[in-house]
Amino acid sequence: MKKILVLATGGTIASTAQANGLAPGLSLAQLSGYFNHFNHNMLIDFRVLMNKDSTNMQPEDWLTIATEIRNNQLKYDSFIITHGTDTMGFTAAGLSYLLHDIDKTIVITGSQVPVSFHKTDAKKNIRDALTFAQKAGLPGVFVVFDGVAIIGTRAVKMRTKSYDAFKSINYPYIATIHEDTLTLSQPFQREVPSFLKTSMAICPDVFLMRIFPGLSPMFFDFLKGHTRGVIIESFGNGGLPFEKRDLVTKIRELTAHGVPVIITTQCLEEGQNMDIYEVGKRAAEAGGITAGDMNTEAIVAKLMWILGQTNKLNEIKRLIQTPIAHDLTYI
User: Fold this and answer.
1) N or C terminus: fewer CB in 10 A for the chain?
2) Distance between CA 99 and CA 239 in Å, rounded?
3) Are 185 and 136 in contact (CB under 8 A)?
4) What is the pLDDT, as a whole number, of residue 29?
5) 183 is known as an active-site residue
C-alpha cells in the first residue's frame, strides 16, 4: 500500500469566492475530502504549507516545499503538491533542481476552476495525480494536468481558461492517465549527472528580458550593479541586434563585469542554434551562453539554483549547459 503525502500550497484548486475575487480559502478538511473520495488502497496524509495564489509564489517558497519533501522522503513513497497554475511551471522546474537527488515520485497538480465549483477540472486532476503517484514508480518532479504527465522542467502554461492548460515543450509527454489507468509513453530514466552536488540554496537576483526592435542599450547599464544573472529572450535562433542600438556590446560588458548572460529564444518550440547567423555568432562571441531548447521557466529556476552555488562564469556555463532532469536536449 503506497503512502502519499499531499502538500497544499493554495492556488485556484483551493480558492473560494471572496470580497475581492477568487482567493485560496478552502480548509484542509475540505480539500482532503476530495482526495479521499478517490482513495484506493493508499495511505494519504495531508499538510498545509501555505495558502497562496500562485502569483504570490516566490523562490523562497520552493525551498519551503523542497525542505518538507526532503525531511519526509523516508516516510512516504510519493508526494503530491496542490498549486496554482500561473507559476506552476516555475515551481516544477525549481523543485526539479532542488530535489534532483530524491528518488521519489513528486507530482504537482492544480486546476483552472476551484474544486468546490459544480463544473471543475479539479476532481479529474486530483484523481489523475493520485493514479500517477500510486502507479508510475518514476523518480522526479512531474506536472499532472488534464490527463497527461509532464516532466517538471518542460511544463509551460499555454492557456488561461481551457482545461488543457499545460503543454510539454520540446519533450514527449511522460504518460497519459484515464481514471485509474496509467499508460507510460516511453521508457523513462532519471537524468542526474554524477558530478552534481545537492544544493538547497537559491539566489533570486536574476533579471529576465524580452528584446524587441527599438530596445535601448542603456537598460543594460543599470543591470551591471543590480543583478547577478541576466536571461535574454532573443529573436529566432538566438540573434541580438548589433547595428544602431548595439546590444551585443552590452552583453560583452556584462560578462566582463562577472554577470552571466543566458540567451534563449522567444520562439516556444525547437530551441535555438546561435551558430547559424551572424547575429547569433556575435552574441555568443560576446559571452552569451546558449540555452539550446530549454524553456524560460526552467532557465530562470536553474540559474537561480546555480547562482546559489557559484559566481564563476565557467562553472555557471557548464551547469546551465548540463542536462538535468531532462531540461535540455541540445545546446
Assistant:
1) N
2) 33
3) no
4) 87
5) no
Residue 273 near residue 294 (C-beta atoms within 8 A): no
Cα separation, 156 vs 168, whole angstroms? 7
Q: Same domain for 218 and 117?
A: no
241-298 pLDDT, tens digit per residue, is 999 999 999 999 999 999 999 999 999 999 999 999 999 999 999 999 999 999 999 9
Helix (H) or strand (E) holding 125: helix 122-135
Q: What is the DSSP string of 280-327?
A: HHHHHHTT-EE-TT--HHHHHHHHHHHHTT---HHHHHHHHTS--TT-
Q: What is the residue range of 24's domain?
A: 2-184
Tell me what pLDDT residue 39 has.
Answer: 76
CATH number of the domain residue 303 falls in:
3.40.50.40
DSSP string, 4-31: EEEEEEESGGGEEEETTEEEE---HHHH
Span 53-75, pLDDT tens digits: 999 999 999 999 999 999 999 99
pLDDT, position 262? 98
Asked whether residue 201 is domain-assigned, the answer is no
Domain co-membership, 104 together with 12: yes
**Are residue 45 and residue 165 in the same domain, yes or no?**
yes
**Rounded Cα gap, residues 107 and 161, in angstroms:** 22
185 contacts 173 by C-beta, under 8 angstroms: yes
Amino acid at 291: A
For the whole model, what pTM was predicted?
0.95
Q: Tell me the average pLDDT across 126-146.
A: 97
On whether the CB atoms of residues 156 and 169 are closer than 8 A, the answer is yes
Catalytic residue among 12, 87, 264, 296: 12
Q: In the listed set 150, 184, 218, which residue is the last one of a domain according to the structure?
A: 184
